[in-house]
Amino acid sequence: xxxxxxxxxxxxxxxxxxxxxxxxxxxxxxxxxxxxxxxxxxxxxxxxxxxxxxxxxxxxxxxxxxxxxxxxxxxxxxxxxxxxxxxxxxxxxxxxxxxxxxxxxxxxxxxxxxxxxxxxxxxxxxxxxxxxxxxxxxxxxxxxxxxxxxxxxxxxxxxxxxxxxxxxxxxxxxxxxxxxxxxxxxxxxxxxxxxxxxxxxxxxxxx
Length: 207
Hints:
Layout: H1 8-13, H2 19-32, H3 38-51, H4 55-66, H5 68-76, H6 78-83, E1 95-99, E2 104-109, H7 118-121, H8 126-129, H9 131-139, H10 141-147, E3 157-162, E4 168-172, H11 184-188, H12 193-197
Parallel strand pairs: 1-4, 2-3
Helix pairs in contact: 4-5, 9-10
């Protein structure tokens, strides 16, 4: 079928082969044609990346902090425990929970692409998908953590988990001091997206 120079087939033919670049190119085309407001698009992405998205994971962590039986079930079979909370779904079928302790800190990376537990953490942040993070998190995790503001004692082990299409990970951060007596809803407010990747720590409750 013949298409005009400005038709949709022409626009499609000029898109780059890489999926992420294709999305960016499509976004630029839609913005240029006035079909999408970039500010509104940024607001939607921010909502799902930083506010709505990670809330499911935060509720899982909060329950693990306050319910020992659920914590044990989560560490034994995270996929089943999470599904029991209604958070199963595409990109979240096979999940393992790894727990930070006084002796060990966990950090998650995907060295091959950007495998990520979407139903729990929302949209993966740009840095998680970057070549630099994917390479350096494995090679020099302590330096990477320090750049995120997480400085660990020298005697604390760091374990790096490589997420794949077959297995994704969620970090259960250490419960922050001063949070005794808080209910699960209040505890969930302390859990950040980065703390469930391992590149951050949960917030401490305001006094």
